[in-house]
Design goal:
The protein has helices at about 65-75, 130-140, 165-185, 230-235, 240-260, 265-270, 275-280, 290-305, 315-320, 330-335, 355-360, 365-375, 390-410, 415-425, 430-445, 450-460, 465-480, 480-500; strands at about 1-5, 25, 30, 35-40, 65, 80-85, 90-100, 115-120, 150-155, 160, 200, 205-210. It has about 500 residues and is an alpha+beta fold. Helix 12 (about 365-375) packs antiparallel against helix 15 (about 430-445) and helix 16 (about 450-460) packs antiparallel against helix 17. It comes from Acer yangbiense. This is non-specific serine/threonine protein kinase.
């Protein structure tokens, strides 16, 4: 869930970056990206406006945006666009972005297009009821004042992806293995084990957060959670034992099975009543093995026993869950439906230029900045035109390139591709810079094959141009041709080194 504020970043560096890759929290065992978003903009008016309508002050009417609108504005919620990131209990993510359309408002003003906005993204936990969120947003959206970053819209669209059964079994096993390892290493106590302690790494593999091993938990005195999920012995004497961790693991198993946070006492009653199917997550739609589910429910029941001595130990957890793994050869990222983490080409030993460094990290945003700053200085000498060639067609071609440059600076990469293609198709002039820019546009539009072709064309025009080789390296890496990408990166670095010794290259 989220919200948008407009014109907030006028004059802000749109290329500023925003942090490292994050591991993702496992919330109720579903990748639930349902977001509410709200948009607002500072008004130029002198008094508070009402009704949520647009006015002469240029603030657009309050409206509902689609998730596609906000993805386009924030480059698919790129980490490069994050301007605020805080909050532990309730994550607070704010993105900058540039609105491509005026939403669903009826305003035809060009000012409603290409405006800067701030988008605040909420989790479903923060606003479980989309209807309540929408009502609150519409209420705030009526406010209009020059001292307020006015709310111009919201979004309740979402993308829900249920984790399949085999992946849930993998989560259970991996966390059991993590607990067994910690126990063998003399750290059997884990602070407040729950589903939120399960993280997914870049390959989609589940991992146990190490933070639960800290917080003064080794002496057994640090434990804080909802009382309904607290081990009984902690309520009696205020101390956590290794058996208490097993109890908490049982609650994680219930979360994996049901997709909900069910109080252990309620779940045990249903298990004893043989109502196992009623506990299963309905989002699985029956796509699970009843026999395997019965084994996991039985294990959860043993973990949740009132007497600590009756609970299994960590090795019992592993030995019970290991035989249930039915898709061991399928990578986690495939089961989660997330893209494979791309490997950046290895960095050469000698220092790289800014362009080489950006390409070795596959940082498309940094590459874009460099190409914008370099402009066309590398095209010098690649074209010699006679007076007779300055025809109307030539002027039209250069105008197409100019429009492409504007779109490229504004990060409107699809328009840039169209304009640069008009320039290239005429064929009177050849520009390695245009090819390299269109190559990057293709990369940013997830078209690595086309990007590679353009980078190779740039090399044909300018055989010793390091940028052409760098762009080929990035495109090859995107195509999972990592050995070729590494070779190309080395060749580009070699050309740069040659230039430093007086050669003609960039």
């Amino acid at each position: 869930m989220g919200c948008c504020e407009s014109s907030l970043f006028k004059g802000h560096d749109s290329n500023a970056t925003g942090g490292d890759n994050k591991q993702h929290n496992n919330n109720n065992q579903q990748h639930n990206h349902r977001n509410n978003h709200q948009a607002s903009q500072p008004s130029n008016g002198t008094d508070g406006g009402g009704g949520g309508g647009g006015g002469s002050d240029g603030v657009p009417a309050f409206s509902e945006f689609s998730l596609a609108d906000l993805k386009a504005a924030t480059n698919n919620f790129s980490s490069d666009f994050i301007v605020s990131e805080s909050g532990e209990k309730a994550p607070n993510l704010v993105y900058k972005g540039r609105l491509q359309t005026g939403g669903n408002s009826n305003s035809n003003s060009n000012n409603n297009n290409r405006r800067w906005i701030a988008v605040k993204k909420f989790t479903k936990m923060a606003w479980p009821d989309p209807k309540q969120f929408a009502e609150e947003a519409w209420g705030v959206g009526k406010l209009r004042h020059k001292r307020v970053a006015n709310l111009i819209g919201y979004c309740c669209d979402g993308e829900n992806q249920t984790i399949e059964w085999a992946m849930r079994l993998r989560v259970a096993l991996y966390i059991a293995e993590a607990l067994d390892y910690c126990s063998c290493e003399g750290r059997p106590l884990y602070h407040d084990l729950n589903a939120y302690r399960v993280l997914f790494d870049e390959s989609g593999d589940p991992r146990l957060s190490c933070f639960g091993l800290m917080k003064n938990s080794r002496d057994g005195k640090s434990y804080s959670t909802n009382l309904a999920y607290t081990p009984p012995e902690y309520l009696r004497n205020g101390r956590v034992t290794p058996e208490s961790v097993i109890f908490s693991f049982g609650t994680v198993l219930l979360d994996l099975l049901s997709g909900k946070h069910i109080p252990p006492s309620h779940a045990l009653d249903m298990i004893r009543g043989k109502n196992i199917l009623l506990l299963m997550d309905s989002h699985l739609e029956g796509n699970f093995s009843t026999e395997e589910a019965t084994v996991v429910f039985d294990l959860a029941s043993r973990c949740l026993q009132y007497e600590p001595r009756e609970r299994p130990n960590t090795k019992d957890l592993v030995s019970t869950l290991a035989p249930l793994q039915n898709r061991p050869d399928v990578p986690s990222y495939v089961m989660l439906g997330i893209p494979k983490q791309e490997e950046a080409p290895p960095t050469p030993q000698h220092p790289l230029s800014p362009m080489g460094d950006a390409c070795s990290r596959m940082d498309l945003t940094a590459i874009h900045q460099i190409l914008v700053m370099t402009h066309y200085k590398d095209d010098e000498g690649t074209n010699e035109l006679s007076f007779q060639e300055w025809t109307q067609q030539m002027r039209d071609m250069l105008e197409a390139r100019k429009r492409g440059d504007v779109a490229f600076r504004e990060k409107d990469f699809k328009t840039a591709i169209d304009c640069y293609s008009q320039f290239i198709d005429v064929g009177t002039m050849v520009s390695p810079t245009v090819y390299s820019r269109r190559s990057l546009c293709h990369l940013l539009c997830d078209q690595p094959d086309a990007a590679l072709r353009d980078a190779m064309q740039a090399q044909c025009v300018y055989p010793d141009w390091s940028t052409a080789f760098y762009m080929q390296a990035v495109a090859l890496a995107k195509l999972d041709m990592h050995k070729d990408a590494a070779d190309m990166l080395k060749e580009a670095a070699s050309l740069e080194e040659k230039k430093q010794r007086g050669g003609r290259s960039s």
